[in-house]
Amino acid sequence: MAIRFHPHALERMAERGATKRNVTATVKKGEQFEAKFSRFGFRRNFVFDKRWRGKYYKVKQIEAYAVRIGNDWRVVSVVTRYF
Question: What is the domain partition of the chain in residue ranges?
Answer without folding.
Answer: 3-82
